[in-house]
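Tutorial, part two.
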Amino acid sequence: MFVHKDRVVLLGDAAAGFLPTAGIGASMAMESAAVLAEELSRTDRTYLHWALSLYQKRRQKRVEKAQNDSRQLAKYMFVKSEVWAKLRNKLLKYYSIKNMAKGIDKSFQEPI
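Running the prediction step on this input gives:
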């Protein structure tokens, strides 16, 4: 994840792209913008590099986890085997939307 060099800062897909099937690229970009604004508000030009390093440190783990989660999701969405696709579709009938939403909600409860 490349985030900053000198006075150039990247966020969103420019810093860490996501598969479009995950539907989380925009929310990760907004989170990153909020964290960047928070770190910049705590500093001045003298310590800008430190603030940008803190920004990257705060975002790295969460963004990488979201990227990995989106890759895992894609594996289940885009299966090559027709048999596996039919099995997946049958199993999903028994997995409620409420249960699916719990996983998403859990990720939003984590601090950014």
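Residues 4-109 form one domain. In part three we will examine how such features are distributed along the chain.
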